[in-house]
Amino acid sequence: MPDKLVDPKVIDALNKRWTVFCKKIGAKDSDIVWEWIKSAYIEPTRFYHNLNHINHCLRELDATGEASPPEVELSIWLHDIVYDTAASNNEEE
Asked: Cα Rg for the chain, rounded, in angstroms?
C-alpha cells in the first residue's frame, strides 16, 4: 500500500522512469527491483526519505540539463534505500 504522503501519480511516474532507465542500461528484472525500491521508500515511518525525495532529487538532476553517467542516477535511486528511523548509523549502512 503506497504511503499516503506520496502521490500515486509520483509513484507511477517514477515506475515509468525506472523502467526507461533500466532499458537504457540493459538491466534485467527491473520490475522486481522496482518493487523493492518502492516498498523501501513507502515504509510508513519515512516522512522525508521517501519517493517524494527521490522524485525531487531526480528532478534536480534533470534541471542541470547535462548528461550524466548512469551511476549518478542509480545513486539517486538507491542513496536512502537503507533507512531506519530509530538508527543513528543510516549513512554508514
From this structure: 13
